[in-house]
Amino acid sequence: MRKFNHLQKVLIGWIIGIAIFGCVMIGLRQNALSDMGYSAWTYIQYGLFEYPLTSIGNFVNDVANLWHQYDDNQYLTQELAEQKSYKTLYDNERNENKELQDLLNMKNELGNSTQISARVIKRSSSSWDQYVTISAGSAQGVKENMIVVTSEGAVGLVQDTQTNTSKVQLLTDEDLENDISVKISMEDGSTAEGLIDSYDPDKKAYRMSLFDSSVDVSAGMEVATSGKGGNYPSGIYIGTVRSVEQNDNSIVSTIYVTPVSNISSFNYVIVLGNGKVSE
Amino acid sequence: MRWRAYAVCMFVAACLDVWLTFVFPPDYTYQKLSFIPHICFLVCMMAIYDRKPIDRVLIGALCGILYDFFFGSTFPVSFLLFAAFGYTTGLFKENYDKDMRLLFVVLSAEVFLLDTLPFLFCKIIGTMHVNVGTWLLHMELLTVAIHIAVIYGLMYVLDAVDAWAARREEKRDQQRRNSYRDAE
After folding, report:
1. A31 vs B127 pLDDT, higher one
2. Which residues on B lie below 8 Å from A14 (Cβ)?
3. How confident is the model at residue A219 (pLDDT cuts 50, 70, 90)?
4. What span, in angstroms and rounded, lies between the C-alpha atoms of A100 and A260?
5. pLDDT over 90 at A168, yes or no
6. Where does the record place a coiled coil (chain A) (predicted)?
7. Domains of chain B, CATH where assigned
């Protein structure tokens, strides 16, 4: 019989030993009493080989997921930025819509007076409180000295007209070209008439003087156009009386009238011409 | 000893086989192309191809039985196949010195047969019902293609390991001779 060398004997021994050990392990699996030994062997096999390899695999998966999450994060960040800009656009549209709705409501109440809708197309920061340019001109029927109103009330007078645009002098201009005839409705049903002739930038109020200084005017009374003089109807809201100051001679008093609340920021206006609106 | 280096390489290759199977599991629905790693088998064959026939069979059998018990649950498939292919790998060892491409071809064919023979056996006994063409296309095509590249890589790696182990052995022998000389 062929003789085996030392290496071959060792190899045969190892193979037989492992085969017997393996068969014993498989056989032990059937024996309930030896489950603990088999479980220990299975645990060792799991701990030495499967668990480390599974951990490495999970680590690789996690790193791959991190890349996906990075991409998702970039996408969501961009979406969020776009959402913010959408929100800004939405807020802008909503505010414009509200302004237009209020103007429409006011327009429905004005009756038969000349009404020309327009949009502010220019308002320079250097003359913010003095002038605006609107998108209606002589072609649409705008004439000089017509009154310009927002949803809150009167804000200016048409000073100059072009074919499709007009220049409006705001009532907050310190040098008003034309005085505005106004009236204050009293509690007893009578009216006190006067003129708004200028604007006080320190008090942020119109200066109004009454034709009849004996009339008792108090804060909170509403001031509207009287319809006398100028090319605009009566009853257009100008502002609210803030205070009454007696002059030194106590004969003439100056009434300060708070302008409408949105005189510093409006986008849509109605140009009103002569016609009976309200008393 | 160089065999220690080879043993470590085989252990690492077996771990790599298990890890690759975990990360890229074969698709047994045969919808996608699958890759079945046999890196440990290739390392074993490359380590033993130049040895005597009985050595090749015994080393292949030992490697196979260890692979079956520790890295798979397919005893005695790997035990028998590793032993058989261990014998066949060294049949042309005189020709490998003239042209190493022959070893490359033999190993590629053995990788193919390592999967195909068990499949055909199962097909004959009736436990496998998938079409041969489908199985070859979805399981073997990618496996053989990737192992062709792996064989190239392993040839280089094992040469480097061999050279490193040989240098280490020489250094150890030199140290031993020096210590004997000093003792005298």
Report:
1. B127
2. 62
3. confident
4. 16
5. yes
6. 83-110
7. 3-183 (1.10.1760)
Q: Using CB atoms, which residue from A12, A50, A60 is nearest to B23?
A: A60
- Distance, in Å, from the CA atom of A142 to the CA atom of A273, rounded to the nearest integer, reads 8
* Sole residue written with tokens 């009853």: A235
Quote the minimal CA–CA distance from A3 to chain B in Å: 11
Shortest distance, CA A75 to any CA of chain B (angstroms): 28
Chain A contact for B54 (CB, 8 A cutoff): yes
Cβ atoms within 10 Å of B82's Cβ, excluding its own: 29
Neighbours of B176 (CB within 10 A): 10
* Residue B134 Cα distances to A239, B21, B29, B141, angstroms: 89, 20, 10, 10
Nearest to A11 by CA among B77, B83, B169: B83
Mean pLDDT of chain A: 84
Band (pLDDT 50/70/90 cuts) for residue A265 is confident
Shortest CA distance from B61: residue in chain A: A15
Query: Domain spanning A110-279: which CATH class is it, in words?
Result: mainly beta
- What is the residue extent of each domain of chain A? 1-80, 110-279
Query: Given CB atoms, is B104 within the 8 Å cutoff of chain A?
Result: no
Inter-chain CB proximity B19 and A15 less than 8 Å:
no
CB contact under 8 Å between A56 and B62, yes or no, is no
Burial code of A162-184, b = ≥16 C-beta within 10 A, e = fewer? eeebbbbbbbbbeebebbbbbbb
pLDDT at A166: 94
